[in-house]
Write the structure tokens for this entry.
Amino acid sequence: MPEVVITHETPREEALKRFREMTQNLDPEESLRDILDELQALEQKYGMSTLEFYVRYRAGQMGDAEEFMYWAFLYRAFVHLTQPEPALEQATT
């Protein structure tokens, strides 16, 4: 997955330009593979499934460690990439 370095010192327009350039060349399948690899590594590290983690995280049982916030972000990205687009689903029914 491409990486873009943006800090608090990066001017807003430059940050937006870097983000646009990165997202134009994204391959959804490659992104999904990368996310799955990271999810699996976190599952192994903490000995629980991502779904179990996310339920506990949303219930406030996991705390707010940076790695847990990142895990939750990865899960939401996974859901986003694997759920059908609402407009497409309506058009096909």
Observations:
- The chain has a mean pLDDT of 84.
- The longest helix spans residues 28-46.
- Helices lie at 12-24, 28-46, 50-58, 66-82, 86-92.
- The two ends are 34 Å apart (CA to CA).
